[in-house]
Design brief:
Belongs to the class-IV pyridoxal-phosphate-dependent aminotransferase family. Its EC number is 2.6.1.42. This protein has 7 helices and 19 strands.
């Protein structure tokens, strides 16, 4: 007999008796404010998935010997809910997040789950806490699904117990300015045959010390380089895109390919799709090395560079430090105070207009 899967029709809702006050948008910073409720769904190999439950936000009870606490059996996602001018609340391409969560969880041997039913539970959580979805353009409700192994067992095997849980956080702009990068070729965030293309907690902790070291030097993020040729991979926790005139004289938007090293970002995919729809310049997914970038800067062929991800949407890069020297990256030559380059701003505006319901699109999924 097959084990029960997630069933949104069995969702139980227990509302908080101590609701939090509304947040002022001006005080919002990323990931520090949380809503009243969370979604929890437990799994055991013996009984399958239990009934989903929305309950007051609070601490989790986890055994000290749980797999997640000892062997980092954990994956997560990052999504957002956006309030349109007419009050409608939209998610953005949520099926891509569900698929990526499923793919990542399979890599660490967590149980399969019904993606559509789980997504329906997330929508119900957003409905319960909809008053926390900001009504200002550029602000949103960040959604963090987590999937962890909870069985208390120190044997190095798979976890026979698991927990899917989701909490919400109203957020403002992540990087309301340009960013400066420090190119790192000494350490690697991901490598061939590794797990860089999965959204696992274990990918993030080892990058914390290198990231804090460059912050202490006055930079915002690491530009991760790989191999002897200094292959340009990602920036911090974001995908990295370059807009330049390539060595063949073509205007080109280029980013690293999904070669097993790069995380398949939803924002990355969306920006590439938009640029391809325009058909105004070449759009490529291919390897680029740091020496190629330096030559483009020296030749005046570098037009813009930016990071892309759910948290920041896009953020323009204004400087890269590489092998003892700082290189200025153009942002907007016509406006020295610009926060975004012309292409970066155009992509950002088109994407936000879809997310906030200004531009009709199947990518915007109403809650």
């Amino acid at each position: 007999m097959p084990q029960p899967n997630i069933d949104a029709s069995k969702l139980k809702v227990t509302l908080t008796e101590t609701p939090k006050p509304d947040y002022d948008n001006k005080t919002l910073s990323f990931g520090k404010n949380f809503t009243d409720h969370m979604l929890c769904i437990k799994y055991t190999e013996e009984n399958g998935w239990e009934a989903p439950e929305i309950k007051p936000y609070g601490p989790l009870a986890i055994d000290p010997a749980a797999f997640v606490l000892n062997y980092s059996v954990e994956t997560f996602e990052g999504m957002k809910a956006y309030r349109a001018a007419d009050g409608t609340i939209n998610l953005f391409r949520p099926s891509m997040n569900m698929q990526r969560l499923s793919t990542s969880s399979q890599r660490i041997k967590l149980p399969e789950f019904d993606q559509e039913q789980f997504l329906q539970c997330i929508k119900e959580l957003v409905k319960v806490d909809q008053r926390f979805v900001p009504d200002q353009y550029g602000y949103s409700l960040y959604i963090r699904p987590n999937f962890i192994g909870t069985e208390p067992n120190l044997n190095l095997m798979y976890s026979k117990e698991a927990l899917l849980y989701v909490y919400l956080s109203p957020v403002g702009p992540y990087f309301p300015r340009t960013v400066k990068l420090y190119a790192n070729s000494e350490q690697a965030r991901a490598w061939p045959g590794g797990v860089g293309n999965f959204k696992l907690g274990g990918n993030y902790a080892p990058a914390l010390k290198p990231a804090m070291d460059v912050v202490a030097k006055g930079y915002d993020q690491i530009l991760w380089l790989l191999g002897e040729d200094h292959y340009v991979t990602e920036v911090g926790t974001m995908n990295f895109l370059i807009f330049w005139v390539n060595e063949d004289g073509e205007k080109e938007l280029v980013t690293a390919p999904l070669d097993g090293i790069i995380l398949p970002g939803v924002t990355r995919d969306s920006l590439l799709a938009l640029a391809r729809q325009w058909g105004e310049f070449k759009v490529s997914e291919r390897r680029v090395t740091m020496p190629e970038m330096i030559r483009a800067i020296a030749d005046g062929r570098m037009l813009e560079a930016f990071g892309a991800g759910t948290a920041c949407v896009v953020c323009s890069v204004s400087e890269i430090f590489y092998e003892g020297k700082s290189y200025a990256i153009p942002v907007d030559p016509s406006n020295p105070d610009a926060v975004f380059g012309p292409l970066t701003n155009r992509l950002r505006t088109e994407l936000l207009d879809i997310q906030y319901g200004k531009t009709p699109s199947p990518w915007a999924v109403p809650v």
